[in-house]
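Next comes a single protein record:
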Amino acid sequence: MPLDHTFKHPRRPDLEYNLRWVYRHMIEEYARHNGHADLLRERSAGATGD
């Protein structure tokens, strides 16, 4: 499926997204949660990573 493929939000038909937006959003969320996990790990272990 091409990254420019568009589809409508299931509950909000007025909103339209493309696959590129979905991938970018998922990568940003994954990175954000990994950052939070690093902070919690450092706080509990007292160590910092590279």
About this structure: The first strand starts at residue 6 and ends at 8. Strands lie at 6-8, 16-18. The chain has one domain: 1-37. The chain has a mean pLDDT of 85.
